[in-house]
Amino acid sequence: MTVPPAELATVSGSTLATAQRRLQAVATTTTSKSNHRRLWRHLAVYRTHAQRQRCECRRQSQNQADPKFSGPISNVTVPVGRDALLTCIVHDLVSYKVAWLRVDTQTILSIQNHVITKNHRIAITHTEHRIWQLRIRDVHESDRGWYMCQINTDPMKSQMGYLDVVVPPDIVDYQTSQDVVRASGQNVTLTCSATGVPLPTITWRREENAPLWLPTEHGDEQVDEIYSLEAQNLTLWQLQRVHMGAYLCIASNGVPPTVSKRVMLVVNFAPTIWTRYDTIYVGLGQKLTLECISESQPASINFWIKDKELLQGGTYDSMVVDHVHRIVMRLTLRALTRRDFGEYKCIARNALGETERSIILHRKWGKEERRKTYI
Questions:
Q1: C-beta atoms surrounding 346 within 10 Å
Q2: What is the model's pTM?
Q3: In which broad location class does this protein mainly occur, judging by the first location in its UniProt entry (predicted)?
């Protein structure tokens, strides 16, 4: 039995499933093996024809679609260690595919929903096949560069966006000055180095907003109006005691946090001494305590002298304030006699010099003593 032309027409105009059922129904009406083979040959021909029709319909739908980008990819700036998100918006994608690529390395990162790269920090998301987002977790400096969103049209359509990775400042310790000691009259240069993206700005300040005591352009005097200096190096000329203290190297580049390092400058100087009174009047038999205060760096040796003789005894209370050694020296005289009057010298000495201060002790005459003297 042969299949009537009307049946073949019906098969060619039906879907694949419907055509298969009809051919099977026709086959049940005949017992001839040759007719069975003929029927299944017709079914195979139809399958090939149906597949060609589907491919043609797909090509026609693609030809009718015209995917396009709704706007450029916005450039993104993100601090290192954070997550970055690049967004590509596509209209009328239909059956076309979207891919993300790293431009400088020509690396395919993703195609549609599938992540191609082995970088576990890369992820792809989309909303209704229209908004395609490339997410990079825990951004590294090496992620900085151009990224391409591509549609596989013919010719290919693409657009690019730039990922900029910024890095907070970090002071390079081995390239930055440590605590330093200089003698008065010497010069010193404090150096500070920092890394970061963008390159940090270095600013020098002093603790407690003290002035830097920088020389004028002519170098003939000191000025105290300068409280900060934007420079990598801070040079201090002809050091004096007023220069001693903590200096702050501050690095900032607009990416928080701002960082700083404290550098202590110690200026060695010869002792200085002062006392409340240079001349004292006191009566016989009275008790008196002489006092001098010295300051120096490094610490000094302190002692009392009278008539070129070293005096034993006395107290020496020492303390260190802001790297300055202060010594309060006291000498107590009990029940004054005539021999106790005269000039006393308090002396402080260190490696940079020696300083002394005199206190002259005069006898104070009472009324009775003055009357006896006149008689």
A1: 27
A2: 0.71
A3: membrane
| Same domain assignment for residues 132 and 203 | no
Residues 6+ apart with CB under 8 A from 73: 86, 87, 88, 147, 149, 159, 160, 161
Q: Domain total for the chain?
A: 4
**Listed residues 133, 168, 203: the one ending a domain:** 168
Q: What is the CATH number of the domain that holds 78?
A: 2.60.40.10
Domain of 350 in residue numbering reads as 275-367
SS (H, E, C) the chain: CCCCHHHHHHHHCCCHHHHHHHHHHHHCCCCCHHHHHHHHHHHHHHHHHHHHHHHHHHHHHHHHCCCEECCCCCCEEEECCCCEEEEEEEECCCCCCEEEEECCCCEEEEECCEECCCCCCEEEEEECCCEEEEEECCCCHHHCEEEEEEECCCCCEEEEEEEEEEEEEEECHHHCCCCEEEECCCCEEEECCEEEECCCEEEEEEHHHCCCCEECCCCCCEECCCCEEECCEEEECCCCHHHCEEEEEEEECCCCCCEEEEEEEEEEEEEEEECCCCEEEECCCCCEEEEEEEEEECCCEEEEEECCEEECCCEEEEEEECCEEEEEEEEEECCCCHHHCEEEEEEEEECCEEEEEEEEEEECCCHHHHHHHHC
